[in-house]
Amino acid sequence: MKKITYLLFSLLFLAPMAKAQHVEAHLSDSAYASVLTCGPGEEFYSSFGHSALRICDSTIGIDMVYNYGTFDFGMPHFYWNFACGRLNYCLSRTSYDNFLFEYAYEGRAVWEQKLRISNQELNNLFVLLENNYLPQYRYYWYDFFRDNCATRVRDMVVNCLNHRKLGVETVTDTNMSYRDMVYKSTEGNLLWWRLGVDIALGQRCDIRCSNYEYMFHPIEMMQLFDTMCASDTHQPLVDKAQVVLVETRQPAPKSLSPTLVFWILFIVVLILTLMEWKKRWKMGWLDAILFGLAFAVSVLVIFLWFFTDHYCTKPNLNILWASPLFIYFAIAQRKSKSWLICIQLVMLMAAMVMTIGPLPQQLNVAILPIALTLVCRLLSDLKTRY
Predict the structure, then answer these.
(1) What pLDDT shows up at residue 5?
(2) Longest CA pairwise span in the chain (Å)
(3) pLDDT tens, 64-123?
(4) Which of 189, 31, 200 is nearest to 117 (CA)?
């Protein structure tokens, strides 16, 4: 999903859009609106694609794209607001040609779906977008799953309809969760990003989504628009998607699996632990590193859970393996209380079970070797006492 549109790029093309500020006339009968869907890019922030709305009326010389995926790196406290879930995105506007130029330069595909709406509904949509573009209304708090560039497009389309609804909201046993949708977009070359997202996201991401909620994902929204019908005509609300730009970028190489890396780490730590038992080595340094890293992850999980406005980072059962208890184990080491070690071992085993099944929360499969590595070192601490 497109998360970065440089404001400098937009400013370069404000002049061609100036006349749109004064458009008050009724759009002509030849005017139309369409949903633009952009394919994934190479970076993680663009791996989900992007959505925008196009308003075209050749009679009065309008051909604009409304883009809800814009933010400004120069905003005060940008990174802190992003971490806390309080980042302001805004609606930007550019010409259709300039919009296509950007995606052609990146080698990304673009599809267009013309909306089957009346002229009155088209004018409703135009007014909604223009009002949203006013300085006092163009900013909104971004939420990756519930309020992003795709859901805003969906909501604008729904709100412009006259006494009609878009399809029926359904949830079935075959519907995927938010986490499943993230997995679809992080295959192959984004496995480390998937692990990071899995650690950050909590139980709310494992609830099955309705068809309507699927539309947070631009590609999924395009496919659903092709099949979802208006409530009055029972006909699709859009024409079938037409390819505007063909993807030309080279596919990114597959990334090394984090699961494989952590299984290798587990084997190395297991061998070192066996050597420690046999040769009576002192390996407090290894415990300090492993337990310290686990504690650092727990700080991140706790921060996202309790101190941010992110919807899907709470509650988060990654706290079972990335536990704050590890700072105590890292400092006390062999003097750690045995009963606390036993409690942590139970928590680690629970985390390992959740890498197999999605209830109550699906943990990334790479957590299994990580948890086993921590179990190995905690058991080593217990063994030295008996």
Answers:
(1) 40
(2) 87
(3) 999 999 877 667 776 677 778 888 899 999 999 999 999 999 999 999 999 999 999 999
(4) 31
DSSP secondary structure of 327-345: HHHHHHGGGS-HHHHHHHH
The tens digit of pLDDT for each residue in 123-154 reads 999 999 999 999 999 999 899 899 999 999 99
Q: How many helices (H) and strands (E) does the chain have?
A: 14, 7
Residue 313 and residue 305: Cα distance in Å, rounded?
5
Q: In 166-250, which residue ranges form alpha helices assigned H by DSSP?
A: 178-185, 191-200, 218-225
Express as a percent the part of the chain with pLDDT over 90. Answer: 64
Contact 204, 144 (CB under 8 A): no
Alpha-helical runs (H) found in the chain = 7-11, 14-17, 78-84, 96-106, 119-133, 149-160, 178-185, 191-200, 218-225, 258-279, 284-306, 325-332, 338-354, 367-383
348-369 confidence digits (pLDDT tens): 999 999 998 767 899 999 999 9
Q: What are phi and psi of 147, to 5 degrees?
A: -155, 85
- Region of 163 (left: φ > 0; alpha: ψ -120 to 50; beta: rest) is left
CA 207 – CA 228 distance, rounded (Å): 22
| Angstrom distance (rounded) from CA 193 to CA 328 | 29
pLDDT of 168 above 70: no
Looking at every residue in the chain, the average pLDDT score rounds to: 87
Classified as helix, coil or strand, 45 is: helix
Burial environment of residue 219 by CB neighbours within 10 A (0 to 12, 13 to 18, 19 or more): buried
Please state, in angstroms and rounded to a whole number, the distance separating the CA atoms of residues 191 and 350. 23
The pLDDT score that the predictor gives to residue 26 is 83
Calculate helix-pair angle for 325-332, 338-354, nearest 10 degrees.
Answer: 130
Closest CA to 375 of 323, 332, 317: 323
Q: Taking a C-beta distance cutoff of 8 angstroms, is the pair 49, 245 a contact? A: no
Pairing outcome for strands 139-141 and 32-38 = unpaired
Query: What DSSP state is assigned to residue 138?
Result: S
The two three-digit tokens of residue 209, written as one number: 């989504």
Residue reference for tokens 């308003």: 55
Q: List the chain domain ranges.
A: 7-170+210-245, 258-383
